[in-house]
Design brief:
By secondary structure, the chain is of the alpha+beta class. It folds into 3 domains: about 1-165, no CATH class; about 195-340, Pyrimidine nucleoside phosphorylase-like, C-terminal domain (Aldehyde Oxidoreductase, domain 3); about 360-448, no CATH class. Helices cover about 65% and strands about 10% of the residues. Helix 9 (about 280-295) packs antiparallel against helix 10, helix 10 runs antiparallel to helix 11 and helix 12 (about 360-380) packs antiparallel against helix 13. The longest helix is centred in the first third of the chain and has 37 residues, at about 55-90. Keywords: Membrane, Transmembrane, Transmembrane helix. It comes from Deinococcus radiopugnans ATCC 19172.
C-alpha cells in the first residue's frame, strides 16, 4: 500500500498532471453546458448570459482559443527559461521543486483548459438556417475563463520571479528538510529503553538476499518487513536504507535462520532519489546550493551563509528529538534491524561540502563557527555537542591553512574560542556573549 501511495504521489507531482486534469474537466464541462442548453434552453431571467448570434460567438470563441494557446506557449517558454536558470545556478536536482510547483501547474492548466473548452464549444456552433445553435452558456463561461487566464498570467509573472529567488528556494528546501527530520526522528522520552542489535557474528550463517536489479531505494516499508519476519519466525537484517543506490546482485538483506518471503515487496527501487524517507537527499539539495554558490564562477558567499543558517535551524529543532535505533523486537524476540541516519551522518552531509568549498572564504568560515556555537547552546546531548566540536575543529584547521590575513585569522580564533566556552559552560556563555554584543552595538550607536 505504501508503494502505491508513493507512486500516486509521484504521478500527482508531475508537471503535466494538473494541466491534464483541468483539461479533462474543461471538456466535460463544455459537453455538460452544450447538453443542458440543448435540453432546457436559456431562461429569460439570466440577463448576464451571452446573447449574440452564431457569427459573433464564432469570432469570440476563435479569439479566446487562439490567444489562450498562444499565451500558453509563452508561459511554457518562461518556465523553460526559469528551469534553465535554476539548473545552472542552483543545481539540476532542484528542477523537481519547480516542476512540481502547483502555481506553475495551475497557470499552464488554466490556459490549456481554456483552449480546450473554447475549441470544443466552437465545434458545437452551427449556422444552419433550419436549426441554428449557439451554446450561450459555454460562450459566457469562455469569457470567464479568458478573464481568469489574464489574472493567472499576472500571478504567474510575479510567482515565477519569486520562485527563482535564492532565499525563497532555500526556505522551500528548509521546509522539506524539516519535515523529513520530524518524520525520521521521534519525540525524546527519557524512559524509553534503547534496543541493542546483536553482534555481526549473529548474522554469519544467515540466508542472503541479492538485489534483483539496480536503482535508488526510494521507500522501505518497515511495517511490512516486520510482519513478514514475524510470520516466518525469523530475524531480518537490512544492509540498505532509503537513499542508497542498490547495485544489481549486491547483498541487501540477511535472514536468520532463513529469509522470509516477499522482502522485495517492501522495498521500492527507482531511477532517482526522492524526498520523504531519504533524509540526506533533502540535506544534500541545500548543501549543493551552497557549494555552487561558493564556486569561483559564481562567488556568492551570501547564499552559502543563508544555507548555513538553515542547517543551524534544523539542528536546533532536534533538541527534544531522538533518533530511532532501527532495532525492532516483538515479544522480546528480535525481528528486524535496519540502518538509520544518525546525528553524525546528518551533520557531515550538511557541513563537509560547505567547509571544503568555502575554506578560503573568511565570511563563510566565520559564520560556520557562529552557527556551531549557537547550535551547541541549543543541544543538551553530550554526543551531539562532541560532533559539533569536531566540525568546528575541522573548520578552524581549514580556515587557518587557507586564510592569510592576520585579522581574519584572529577572528577565526576568537569565534572558535567562543564555541569552546559555550561547550564548556552551556547556555550561560551564549547569554553572556549576546549581552556583550548588545552593549557593543549600543556603544557604537552612541558614538555615531
Amino acid at each position: 500500500m505504501k508503494r502505491t501511495w508513493l507512486r500516486l504521489r509521484q504521478i500527482s507531482q508531475e508537471f503535466w498532471f494538473i494541466p491534464a486534469v483541468m483539461t479533462v474537466l474543461a471538456l466535460l464541462l463544455a459537453e455538460a453546458g452544450i447538453s443542458a442548453e440543448e435540453t432546457y434552453g436559456v431562461p429569460d431571467g439570466l440577463t448576464f448570459v451571452y446573447g449574440g448570434g452564431e457569427t459573433g460567438s464564432r469570432s469570440l470563441l476563435s479569439a479566446i482559443a487562439g490567444s489562450s494557446i498562444g499565451v500558453a506557449g509563452t508561459v511554457f517558454s518562461i518556465t523553460i527559461a526559469a528551469l534553465s536558470y535554476a539548473a545552472g545556478s542552483m543545481g539540476p536536482r532542484l528542477l523537481d521543486n519547480f516542476t512540481r510547483d502547483r502555481g506553475n501547474q495551475l497557470t499552464l492548466g488554466t490556459f490549456i483548459a481554456t483552449f480546450a473548452f473554447t475549441l470544443y464549444t466552437l465545434r458545437a456552433v452551427t449556422g444552419s438556417e433550419d436549426q441554428p445553435f449557439v451554446p450561450h452558456f459555454n460562450v459566457t463561461f469562455a469569457l470567464v475563463l479568458a478573464l481568469a487566464s489574464v489574472a493567472m498570467l499576472v500571478y504567474y509573472l510575479a510567482h515565477v520571479t519569486g520562485s527563482i529567488n535564492m532565499t525563497h528556494v532555500a526556505n522551500l528546501l528548509r521546509d522539506d528538510m524539516r519535515d523529513s527530520l520530524m518524520n525520521a526522528t521521534l519525540k525524546d522520552d527519557p524512559d524509553q529503553d534503547t534496543a541493542v542489535a546483536p553482534p555481526p557474528e549473529f548474522w554469519t550463517n544467515g540466508e542472503v538476499l541479492h538485489a534483483p536489479r539496480g536503482g535508488y531505494l526510494q521507500l522501505m516499508d518497515n511495517d511490512l518487513l516486520l510482519e513478514r519476519a514475524r510470520a516466518a519466525d525469523v530475524a531480518l537484517l537490512l544492509h540498505v536504507r532509503p537513499g542508497d543506490y542498490v547495485f544489481p546482485n549486491s547483498v541487501i538483506a540477511v535472514g536468520v535462520p532463513r529469509l522470509p518471503d516477499g522482502v522485495m515487496d517492501a522495498l521500492t527501487l527507482g531511477d532517482r532519489r526522492t524526498v520523504g524517507q531519504d533524509l540526506e537527499y533533502s540535506v544534500r539539495q541545500l548543501a549543493e546550493v551552497a557549494a555552487r554558490a561558493l564556486s569561483p564562477g559564481v562567488n556568492d558567499p551570501v547564499t552559502a551563509i543563508d544555507v548555513i543558517d538553515r542547517f543551524g535551524d534544523a539542528l536546533c529543532s532536534l533538541q527534544d528529538r531522538r533518533w530511532p535505533d532501527g532495532v525492532s523486537y516483538q515479544d522480546q524476540v528480535l525481528r528486524l534491524v535496519v540502518p538509520v541516519t544518525d546525528f553524525t551522518g546528518l551533520t557531515g552531509s550538511m557541513f563537509n561540502m560547505i567547509r571544503q568549498y568555502g575554506k578560503g572564504s573568511p565570511s563563510v568560515m566565520l559564520r560556520l563557527l557562529e552557527v556551531f556555537r549557537t547550535t551547541a547552546s541549543c543541544l543538551n546531548d553530550t554526543e551531539r555537542r562532541a560532533v559539533i566540536r569536531h566540525h568546528a575543529e575541522l573548520v578552524r584547521e581549514d580556515a587557518l591553512a587557507n586564510i592569510e590575513n592576520s585579522g581574519d585569522r584572529t577572528d577565526i580564533e576568537r569565534r572558535y574560542q567562543a564555541l569552546l566556552d559555550t561547550l564548556a559552560n552551556g547556555q550561560d556563555a551564549e547569554v553572556h556573549e549576546a549581552a556583550r554584543h548588545a552593549v557593543r552595538q549600543a556603544q557604537g550607536g552612541r558614538a555615531n
